[in-house]
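PROTEIN–LIGAND DATA SHEET

This sheet pairs a single protein chain with one bound small molecule, adenosine-5'-diphosphate, given as SMILES. Inputs appear in the order they were entered. The predicted three-dimensional arrangement of chain and ligand is reported afterwards as a token string under its own label.
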Amino acid sequence: MKVMKFGGTSVGKPERMHQVAQLVTADAEPKIVVLSALSGTTNALVAIGDAIAAGNRTGAKNKIEELEAHYANFIKQLVEQEECVAKATAITREHFEFLDIILRISFSDALYKDILAQGELLSTKLFSVYLQEKGIDHLLLPALEFMSIDVNEEPELPAIKYKLNKLLQQHSDKKLFITQGYICRNARGEVDNLKRGGSDYTASLIAAAINASVCEIWTDIDGMHNNDPRVVNKTVPISQLSFDEAAELAYFGAKILHPTCIWPAQHSNVPVKLLNTMQPQAAGTTIAEDAQSTGVKAVAAKDGIIAIKIKSSRMLLAYGFLRKVFEVFEKYRTPIDMITTSEVAVSLTIDTDAHLPEIIKELEPFGSVEAEDNLTIVSVVGNEIAETPEVLKKLFDAISTIPVRMVSYGGSRHNISLLIGSEYKKEALQLINSGVFGL
Ligand SMILES: Nc1ncnc2c1ncn2[C@@H]1O[C@H](COP(=O)(O)OP(=O)(O)O)[C@@H](O)[C@H]1O
Ligand SMILES: N[C@@H](CC(=O)OP(=O)(O)O)C(=O)O
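PREDICTION REPORTED AS:
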């Protein structure tokens, strides 16, 4: 059995959904198809939730109406038969009625998550209606019945495995299952999600849970490119990546993959393929354990980074000092991305300001604390990169005009990371493209 995940761009237009139907019926292998919300929908739902949270009910109502109109148009081109048009219309009405009700009741965090879940519920149900119209046998598997996260918001792989396999056994006559990406239940049993872009994570968790033959991530580009195609002009697809390389690229900003979506597939040794819905014949990228070729593969950039510097001539070299610093970040569940130390200071980076004031306050007894935002981590990734001759020289020659704030080298065998001001990101990625990749 294989997993095929189609992102928002692959289901965002009726004709693309038609194409998805062709791709999922192209071979006889049983499959679980994971769909994201239509592109733009989750952003619109976030805007609706934010407007309601801010007490701007008129603004929220206008956004809901705009989104409903978008779905009304979508349906017109998705299905033709009167009966299917009626079904699709009833489905959208039901979900927009839910949003209308939320406008009238008191708002909570749990309701916000419910709002965000509507996108994937809509896309899968509408796709199911289209499959019905085409007479394609399938079953809609509700993700909320098997996809769960624990109190620390981590997916519960053993529970997911148990529940999903049980559901599949109950429907062993079926060959095609459709389910929602992104959405799940949390430890309180409420509707929750796997964070933005989380449908890739859903696909990888499902692939691990069923020990799939392959986890295919279908998107709007022919695989992982060597650089961010939204930022630089000339990029090329990479045919093979190891799990570690792909995980580093996803974590350090390659938007094509959700930051943590590699580990489940790696855990079960399921190869992941990145493929293009608009160009299905393109080779794409294969991510697998045995893709071990060495050398520089790609560069990615992660924005929204904050650097914190703690200066303390007294305490820094005392043992136990770093532990005390790390405990503050642990307390606020804020991961540290990069860290460097010197005789008198320790500098580290985080990617969220959610608890910044509390963190700074608790660090102040250790020394003087400075925080700086608007920074970007640029990560150059490739197996055994540190042992690859010339890489460091080429990299630093290429970016000699860019002020570099921090460097991380040696922490992983697959990664060299640089911290720069976000205003230099585009220039740095372009310089690395020509200086390191020769493009
Ligand atoms: N290194 C990269 N390789 C390929 N695509 C990238 C890379 N970095 C950023 N992207 C962007 O990721 C996009 C695909 O991811 P996403 O928008 O999340 O797709 P989907 O809607 O299918 O989930 C591409 O259109 C591309 O612009
Ligand atoms: N719809 C969700 C989940 C997702 O993964 O979407 P996409 O596959 O289009 O990146 C989001 O926008 O965050």
